[in-house]
């Protein structure tokens, strides 16, 4: 070995040292960047015995990344469902209730509680049937019940519309992320062909996939040329060399019974009942579940309650030989002229009101609640209290009985098909709170899983400052030694030249 | 380069590892403090889930029992009012009976019979028109109209007109006519038990005397338990007393012979006695309603205690356990703060000599 070879080794050592320092500096700079994968400089011995940085490895972990993105998707979906259900649950909020002994209206604002209040008010009315204040109290309880159904229905509509808007913005985010992904993916493919360092582009790609997983459940594969393809968790292609167009038309107003548009990828619907490959996770799936399944089901239950109420309070022909059809009594909907069928109750909860004929604020006669004939005050056939007696309680007791009488409901609303109004309303509260509890538990659980997976990924691929500091000290020592070596070799050269 | 083992921990994770537990503990602390102050679960619906409907139905039962208990006080008041009016009517009948027993026919004693009848009839009518609140307690369901019309009203009441008419049809004269002195005791007896008695029964009673409905009011005093809460002025007792008092009032001071007056007094005496018994029967009927209300109230009160206990079991938190939880959570958060501060010191750069 010659002294000039020693110079070459020293030179390569300085170069390798500088390259490793750059890696350490890069790692330290990104110590707090979420999703950054630390870089490792691979040092090899070169042909004349020196050291070269042959390549820089990115410490990636595809399995953990996959776990992070899938748990993120699950958590986002459950969070979206839980948020929607929490808003819906406000319609049955009874957290303000007390179990004290004072007053009867202690059950909060749910239709179920309002129904119980109406029953109480009617019971009180039956004790003083000639009291106009008792009649007014019963009517105001009835009006509160109708209003609670109206507002619950409005809340359902609002929750669905919010979900629809969220779907639109989620689709916007997905499209924008897919476009960003195109740039990053191209950089990786080109970089690999030219042999450039693609670590940073790969980090960007991973980070976009994780962000995408927030919106929609995804899986990825990497081709031989380094190009990454993205599919939804149901298998529809979102990106393969080029992004697919995700489209969605928002529906600003979603009244009871109206369906929102489906999200399509390259023409294939990925949400809704008609989708051959519906997505399972991600915020988008959560919003779609709220908009298309959960909120409409709750709405159907509200409509059933409204339909059941109108029927239960309906008035029949009281003639000796009844010929006329039964008509809506205390509860009706504007312009309604017959009792609703329980299999087509769509829109009833939003429209239900107390009959103007009995509502004193609309010029009605509150005594009709006791006497009957609310449906058609001009027609004596519907009058129950034929003698006009002030303490007639037959009709009031009949109405109280109707509230707890078993009647038929449409099983497609997801609850018992045969129950009393009170039981049905209570079942509806149970159904909603059970869904809410389940979504909330599931959301907490999936968030915990996502946090765990992110921690695991961070530990597997992140930067430890102390390790980098140690590396830097090593490099410092190595630099110092190389410098010392240089001085020594230079001294040897000088001595050699002086001797010559 | 350093090898990476299972012990590798990224600095970013180390710095942030305590953030999630602290946030979780803080959120638990918020709800624990709400629960501690209200004694109930912070979010009842979320806590109960599908038990929510059951909890609501328990609360509804509580509300229903409370409403019924409140309503029963109205029922009790109206029952007591009716009882006390019936007692007054009954004791007035008893007094009349005693006075009749003490009465002996003489030339001028007719006037005292008449006075006796008139005051007793006025007292009967006022008793029958007793109100509780703005309701006539003896009106049946027709409680808004006074059940018995005033017999002595001006213009002449329908009832008095009918009585005069019946007398004239039978005897050809009015009771005040001196010719009435010729009416024999037996003729008087058959008039009183015939055409006169018919005025106090059936359609005549409803037309001339009573506006009451024969349907009594009823009330639900406990779930599924309905009782009759009033009686009405169409009961035979009212008819018998009205009949007796009217005959005394109309024929007592008239021009009738003492024999005929004796016949009137005898007939009246028997009717008053029947009427008084009938009043006692009505009182007994209402009394059983009253005791039904009392026992319903006490059974509902014990049901309420049980139901409220069940609601409490669902709604209420154990405040002692919550207090302990708050202490534990506070300690946890403090510990996490302490650790975060210590961890931030764990940095190699702190311990390297400054070159």
How are the SSEs ordered, and which strands pair?
The complex is a heterodimer of chains A (500) and B (355).
Chain A: H1 3-29, E1 39-45, E2 51-58, H2 62-89, H3 111-127, H4 132-194, H5 199-215, E3 218-222, E4 228-232, E5 237-240, E6 242-243, E7 246-247, E8 264-265, E9 268-269, H6 283-312, E10 331-332, H7 348-351, E11 353-354, H8 368-371, H9 394-404, E12 406-408, E13 418-420, H10 421-461, H11 465-499
Antiparallel strand pairs in A: 1-2, 3-4, 4-5, 5-6, 7-8, 8-9, 10-11, 12-13
Helix pairs in contact in A: 1-11, 2-5, 2-6, 2-10, 3-4, 3-9, 3-10, 4-5, 4-6, 6-10
Chain B: H1 11-16, H2 19-38, H3 44-48, H4 52-102, H5 110-128, E1 131-132, E2 135-136, H6 158-171, H7 185-198, H8 202-209, E3 218-222, E4 225-228, H9 236-251, H10 258-315, H11 319-345, H12 348-351
Antiparallel strand pairs in B: 1-2, 3-4
Q: Brief overview, please?
A:
The complex is a heterodimer of chains A (500) and B (355). Chain A has 500 residues and is of the alpha+beta class.
3D architecture notes:
- The complex is a heterodimer of chains A (500) and B (355).
- Helices cover 55% and strands 9% of the residues of chain A.
- In chain A, strands 3-4-5-6 form a four-stranded antiparallel sheet. In chain A, strands 7-8-9 form a three-stranded antiparallel sheet. In chain A, strands 1-2 form a two-stranded antiparallel sheet.
- Mean pLDDT of chain A is 89; it is low at 95-106.
- Chain A starts with a helix and ends with a helix.
- By secondary structure, chain A is an alpha+beta fold.
- Chain B has helices at residues 11-16, 19-38, 44-48, 52-102, 110-128, 158-171, 185-198, 202-209, 236-251, 258-315, 319-345, 348-351, and strands spanning 131-132, 135-136, 218-222, 225-228.
- In chain B, strand 1 (131-132) and strand 2 (135-136) form a beta hairpin.
- In chain B, helix 4 (52-102) packs antiparallel against helix 10.
- The mean pLDDT of chain B is 87.
- At the A-B interface, strand 1, helix 3, helix 10 and helix 11 of A face helix 1, helix 3, helix 4, strand 3 and helix 10 of B.
């Amino acid at each position: 070995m010659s002294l000039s070879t020693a110079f070459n080794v020293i030179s390569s050592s300085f170069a390798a040292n500088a390259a490793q320092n750059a890696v350490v500096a890069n790692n330290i700079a990104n110590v707090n960047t979420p999703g950054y994968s630390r870089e490792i400089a691979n040092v090899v011995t070169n042909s004349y015995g020196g050291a070269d940085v042959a390549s820089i490895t990115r410490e990636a972990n595809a399995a953990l990344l996959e776990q992070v993105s899938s748990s993120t998707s699950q958590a986002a979906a459950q969070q979206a469902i839980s948020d929607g259900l929490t808003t819906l649950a406000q319609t049955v909020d009874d957290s303000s209730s007390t179990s004290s002994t004072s007053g009867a209206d202690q059950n909060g604002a749910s239709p179920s509680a309002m129904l119980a209040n109406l029953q109480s008010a009617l019971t009180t009315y039956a004790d003083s049937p000639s009291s106009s204040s008792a009649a007014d109290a019963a009517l105001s309880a009835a009006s509160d019940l109708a209003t609670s159904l109206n507002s619950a229905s409005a809340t359902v509509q609002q929750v669905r519309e919010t979900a629809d808007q969220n779907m639109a913005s989620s689709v916007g985010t997905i499209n924008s992320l897919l476009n960003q992904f195109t740039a990053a993916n191209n950089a990786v493919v080109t970089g690999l062909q030219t042999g450039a360092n693609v670590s940073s582009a790969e980090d960007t790609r991973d980070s976009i996939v994780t962000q995408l997983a927030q919106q929609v459940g995804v899986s990825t594969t990497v081709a031989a040329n380094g190009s990454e393809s993205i599919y939804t968790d149901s298998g529809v292609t979102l990106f393969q060399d080029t992004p697919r167009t995700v489209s969605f038309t928002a529906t600003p107003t979603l009244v009871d019974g109206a369906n929102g548009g489906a999200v399509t990828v390259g023409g294939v619907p990925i949400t809704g009942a008609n989708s051959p490959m519906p997505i399972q996770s991600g915020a988008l799936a959560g919003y779609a579940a709220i908009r298309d399944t959960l909120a409409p089901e709750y709405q159907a239950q509200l409509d059933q309650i409204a339909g059941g109420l109108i029927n239960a309070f309906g008035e029949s022909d009281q003639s000796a030989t009844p010929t006329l059809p039964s008509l809506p009594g205390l509860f009706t909907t504007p312009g309604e002229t017959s009792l609703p069928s329980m299999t087509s109750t769509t829109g009833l909860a939003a429209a239900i009101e107390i009959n103007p004929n009995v509502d004193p604020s609309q010029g009605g006669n509150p005594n009709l609640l006791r006497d009957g004939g609310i449906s058609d005050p001009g027609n004596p056939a519907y009058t129950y209290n034929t003698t006009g007696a002030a303490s007639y309680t037959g009709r009031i007791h009949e109405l109280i009985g109707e509230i707890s009488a078993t009647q038929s409901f449409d099983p497609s609303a997801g609850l018992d098909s045969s129950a009393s109004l009170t039981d049905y309303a209570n079942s509806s509260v149970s159904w909603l709170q059970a869904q809410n509890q389940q979504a909330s538990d599931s959301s907490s659980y999936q968030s915990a899983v996502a946090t765990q997976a992110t921690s695991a990924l961070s530990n597997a691929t992140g930067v430890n400052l102390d390790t980098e500091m140690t590396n830097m000290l090593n490099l410092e020592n190595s630099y110092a030694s190389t410098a010392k070596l240089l001085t020594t070799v230079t001294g040897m050269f000088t001595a050699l030249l002086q001797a010559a | 380069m350093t090898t990476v083992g299972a012990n590798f921990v990224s600095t970013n994770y180390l710095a942030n590892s305590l953030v999630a537990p602290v946030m979780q503990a803080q959120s638990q602390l918020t709800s624990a403090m709400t629960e501690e102050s209200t004694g109930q679960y912070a979010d009842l619906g979320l806590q109960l889930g599908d038990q929510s409907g059951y909890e609501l139905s328990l609360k509804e039962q509580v509300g229903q029992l409370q409403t019924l208990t409140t309503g029963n006080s109205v029922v009790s008041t109206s029952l007591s009012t009716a009882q006390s009016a019936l007692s007054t009517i009954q004791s007035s009948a008893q007094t009349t009976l005693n006075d009749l027993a003490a009465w002996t026919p003489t030339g001028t004693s007719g006037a005292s019979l008449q006075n006796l009848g008139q005051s007793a009839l006025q007292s009967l009518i006022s008793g029958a028109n007793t109100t509780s609140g703005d309701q006539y307690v003896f009106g049946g369901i027709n409680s808004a109209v006074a059940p018995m019309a005033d017999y002595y009203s001006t213009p002449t009441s329908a009832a008095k007109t009918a009585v005069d008419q019946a007398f004239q049809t039978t005897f050809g004269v009015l009771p005040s006519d001196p010719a009435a002195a010729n009416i024999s005791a037996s003729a008087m007896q058959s008039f009183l038990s015939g055409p006169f008695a018919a005025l106090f029964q059936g359609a005549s009673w409803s037309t001339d005397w009573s506006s009451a409905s024969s349907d009594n009011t009823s009330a639900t005093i406990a779930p599924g338990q309905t009782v009759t809460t009033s009686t009405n002025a169409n009961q035979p007792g009212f008819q018998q007393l009205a009949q007796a008092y009217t005959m005394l009032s109309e024929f007592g001071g008239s021009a009738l012979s003492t024999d005929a007056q004796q016949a009137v007094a005898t007939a009246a005496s028997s009717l008053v006695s029947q009427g008084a018994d009938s009043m006692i029967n009505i009182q007994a009927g209402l009394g059983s309603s009253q005791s039904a209300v009392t026992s319903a109230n006490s059974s509902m009160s014990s049901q309420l205690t049980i139901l409220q206990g069940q609601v409490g079991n669902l709604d209420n938190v154990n405040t002692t356990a919550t207090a302990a939880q708050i202490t534990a959570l506070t300690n946890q958060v403090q510990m996490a703060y302490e650790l975060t501060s210590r961890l931030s010191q764990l940095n190699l750069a702190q311990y390297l000599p400054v070159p």
